[in-house]
């Protein structure tokens, strides 16, 4: 653990405030004080970073580079203090200065570098790599604005700019000595080399400058600090001076503005051609900067590329960085002069690909026309990769035109498109899913032909989350109780939580565990009151559905049960056994009409229920806006029930399901994603599984008629009639008809009607069981005790051993 001394800490803070902020400490604002404390912590991080790098260089360590379009590290000061082991010392020092550390922590913005589970998983993996003393580094984009800041106006989601102060963040270290030059646009000029062979030249390209910032990533214990390297896009010239001298100032800076927009915002809208092109340029920019930097670091200590796969591993986090396949080939062949075959061998041995989705719309494809305009040389390379691959397929499976069409990187028919998942699979030596059931579906449903060709490439790596962030930091009451009971070894070895199991028979421990949960619920109730102006009862069941708003995640099914419960109380006079608070959080994509309508429906239902004196003592409904890491840290510890009710076969893994279970929430879920493995490990008796299974849905898909379920279930028919009515939209009659019709008239693709009865029955069982507080606490403890497997430390060890072939350097 690192140590800091009182006088040195105060002196460093004072020096920062005087010489950077120009203030005396007594005149400093809370923001000034936050930056002063962060600057002191940053000095410690930099010292350890340098020592870590010396260690890796001396050992000539193989390094892993994790490319992801998203990272969601959350607030960094609290995490750094915790991982460096100086949180208590810092708090005590600040107390002598009459400064409350908690006030300073609340001054920090969440870095707007991602959106959801993909980015949070990437951040967890960086935490574990550093904790395990492994040379693993993140590569991403330094967005000025995140996806969007969500506000709610009259029940509707409004998207506002999600700016975070990245240009003044104390955690972003500018690397002015490192710049990446990225060519884009232009054309291919065919020439011949000295031997008369075709030698394509990429000419007339424009140049984007990638500026580099690093965020230090501290491992728990403070032994190792790795980095998350982020790239900002800039024009290579400040102005086109010729145009400027002609008097057209605005046209002179047009290109500068165009290029710098690349790193402005996460996921620019692809609903129009300009947005689609910008999104492609953004992905290419990340890939090109990353590959340049990785090769630059490698060549500092190595000559030639014979050792490259032995010293470098690159992991593609979903299809967004799939262009790495073409870019690495371009740099090896065009820049460094390698022949195609050795370059291809290096590329495939270096790259690994993680698939994160089974949804067709989430598997990226790009029109050939856009690639031809934006990155024409890469398009040539992709065509050549595909030509050689198709020859291989024809050799292995002669006269099989179906296979050729299925496995080609280029989709013919209509507008030609590049299939990025196919490119990633062909260019990687490893393809993994992120939960056992998901990996099987990838092999057998998504890309069975590739699995038939290369079964050895496919494997599973079930996701994990870091216990440092999601128990130790987010839930100090629980982590303190655990440490008191079994010591602190669990923080870096989560399997030690199993030692809690015998304590389910200890009445004192049960009581204290319940007290921790209630204290967290009181804190959450206060946040709900401040953000939604709805008063909720901490003694009610806190049932939380927090995740991206999407039809397959079935927030709509949750609402159907709430409406059903409301009608049972209001019309049938059936009082439930315990009061419940239904809590929603999550963002809908700006162009996703049904998802945004679902948010509107939740608010419409909430308005009716929360203002009905007959019903509101028994159920309350709230939607907490702007879901983000810091909000999740407050939500998850306060949950009694975790909603994981996606349509089976749609969720790749999930990580929220793990975080909730670790913190003692009981899962209500389908056998989907990693919930399958959670059920196996915590025991089916300690959570609630309902609904159709993957194979059942597949068998029903062709003949499923949701009307059959509605007509044979009076409760469901009543609920759907109410949804279609204007009860929850009196000011905007008829607006929820679209949601009603999506399931009744347009097939109910996500099987809400088929799973309704089982879901209602399960929710009724939850209420009955919750009334037995002792048994509920026992099951809650067992959820915490049996989720050690879902640590990101375990996941990273599996990646390191099976795919990356990297090892710790403590």
Describe the structure.
Pfam families: Phosphorylase (PF00343). It catalyses: [(1->4)-alpha-D-glucosyl](n) + phosphate = [(1->4)-alpha-D-glucosyl](n-1) + alpha-D-glucose 1-phosphate. With 810 residues, the chain is an alpha/beta fold. It has three domains: 1-59 and 76-109, no CATH class; 60-75 and 110-462 and 797-804, Rossmann fold; 530-773, Rossmann fold. It contains 33 helices and 22 strands. Strands 5-8-9-2-1-10-11-15-16 form a nine-stranded mixed β-sheet. Strands 19-18-17-20-21-22 form a six-stranded parallel β-sheet, sandwiched between helices. Helix 6 (117-131) packs across helix 33 and helix 11 crosses helix 14 (376-396). The longest helix is centred in the first third of the chain and has 30 residues, at 30-59. The model has no long low-confidence stretch (mean pLDDT 94).
């Amino acid at each position: 653990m690192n140590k800091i001394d009182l006088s040195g800490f105060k002196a460093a803070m004072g020096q920062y405030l005087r010489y950077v902020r120009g203030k005396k400490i007594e005149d400093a604002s809370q923001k000034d004080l936050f930056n002063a404390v962060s600057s002191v912590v940053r000095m410690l991080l930099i010292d350890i970073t340098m020592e870590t790098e010396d260690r890796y260089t001396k050992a000539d360590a193989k390094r892993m580079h994790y490319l992801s379009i998203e990272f969601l590290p959350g607030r960094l000061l609290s995490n750094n203090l915790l991982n460096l082991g100086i949180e208590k010392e810092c708090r005590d020092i600040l107390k002598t200065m009459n400064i409350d550390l908690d006030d300073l922590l609340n001054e920090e913005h969440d870095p707007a570098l991602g959106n959801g589970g993909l980015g949070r998983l990437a951040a967890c993996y960086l935490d574990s790599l550093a904790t395990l003393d492994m040379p693993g580094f993140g590569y991403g984009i330094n967005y000025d604005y995140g996806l969007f800041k969500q506000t709610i106006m009259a029940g509707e989601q409004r998207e506002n700019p999600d700016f975070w102060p990245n240009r003044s963040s104390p955690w972003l270290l500018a690397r002015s000595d490192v710049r990446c030059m990225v060519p884009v646009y232009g054309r291919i000029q065919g020439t011949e080399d000295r031997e008369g062979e075709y030698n394509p030249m990429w000419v007339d390209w424009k140049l984007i400058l990638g500026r580099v910032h690093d965020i230090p990533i501290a491992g728990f214990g403070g032994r190792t600090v790795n980095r998350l390297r982020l790239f900002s896009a800039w024009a290579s010239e400040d102005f086109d001076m010729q145009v400027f001298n002609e008097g057209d100032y605005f046209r002179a800076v047009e290109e500068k503005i165009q290029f710098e927009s690349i790193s402005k915002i996460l996921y620019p809208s692809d609903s129009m051609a300009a947005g689609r092109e910008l999104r492609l340029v953004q992905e290419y920019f990340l890939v090109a900067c990353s590959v340049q930097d990785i090769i630059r670091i490698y060549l500092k200590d190595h000559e030639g590329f014979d050792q490259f796969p032995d010293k470098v591993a690159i992991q593609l986090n979903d299809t967004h960085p799939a262009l790495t396949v073409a870019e690495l080939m371009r740099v090896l062949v065009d820049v460094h002069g390698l022949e195609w075959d050795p370059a291809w061998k290096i590329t495939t041995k270096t790259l690994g690909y993680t698939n994160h989705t089974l949804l067709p719309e989430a598997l990226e494809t790009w029109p050939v026309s856009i690639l031809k305009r934006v990155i024409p040389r890469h398009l040539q390379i992709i065509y050549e990769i595909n030509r050689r691959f198709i020859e291989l397929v024809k050799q292995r499976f002669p006269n099989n035109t179906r296979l050729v069409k299925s496995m080609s990187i280029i989709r013919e028919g209509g507008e030609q498109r590049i299939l990025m998942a196919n490119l990633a699979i062909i260019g990687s030596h490893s393809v993994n899913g992120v939960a056992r059931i998901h990996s099987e579906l990838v092999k057998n449903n998504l890309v069975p032909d590739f699995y038939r060709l290369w079964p050895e490439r496919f494997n599973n790596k079930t996701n994990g989350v870091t216990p440092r962030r999601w128990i130790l930091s987010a839930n100090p009451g629980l982590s303190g109780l655990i440490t008191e009971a079994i010591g602190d070894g669990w923080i870096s070895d989560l399997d030690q939580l199993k030692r809690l199991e015998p304590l389910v028979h200890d009445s004192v421990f049960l009581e204290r565990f319940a007290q921790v949960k209630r204290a967290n619920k009181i804190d959450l109730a206060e946040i709900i009151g401040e953000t939604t102006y709805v008063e909720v009862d901490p003694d009610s069941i806190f049932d939380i559905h927090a995740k991206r708003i999407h039809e397959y995640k079935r927030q709509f099914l949750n609402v159907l049960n709430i409406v059903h419960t409301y009608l049972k109380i209001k019309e049938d006079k059936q009082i439930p056994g315990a009061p419940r608070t239904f809590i929603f959080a999550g963002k809908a994509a700006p162009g996703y009409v049904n998802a945004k309508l679902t948010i509107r429906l939740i608010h419409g239902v909430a308005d009716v229920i929360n203002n009905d004196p007959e019903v509101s003592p028994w159920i309350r409904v709230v939607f907490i806006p702007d879901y983000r890491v810091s909000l999740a840290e407050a939500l998850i510890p306060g949950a009694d029930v975790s909603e994981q009710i996606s349509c089976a076969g749609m969720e790749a893994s999930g990580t929220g399901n793990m975080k909730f279970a670790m913190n003692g929430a009981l899962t209500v879920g389908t056998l989907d994603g990693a919930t399958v493995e959670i059920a196996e490990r915590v025991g089916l008796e300690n959570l609630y599984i309902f609904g159709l299974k993957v194979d059942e849905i597949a068998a029903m898909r062709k003949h499923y008629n949701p009307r059959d379920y509605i007509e044979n279930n009076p409760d469901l028919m009543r609920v759907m009639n109410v949804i279609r009515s204007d009860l929850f939209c009196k000011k905007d009659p008829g607006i929820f008809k679209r949601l009603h019709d999506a399931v009744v008239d347009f097939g109910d693709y996500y099987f809400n009607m088929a799973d309704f009865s089982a879901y209602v029955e399960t929710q009724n069982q939850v209420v009955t069981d919750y009334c037995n507080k002792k048994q509920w606490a026992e099951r809650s403890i067992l959820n915490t005790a049996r989720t050690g497997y879902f640590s990101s430390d375990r996941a990273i060890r599996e990646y390191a051993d099976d795919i990356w072939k990297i090892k710790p350097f403590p």
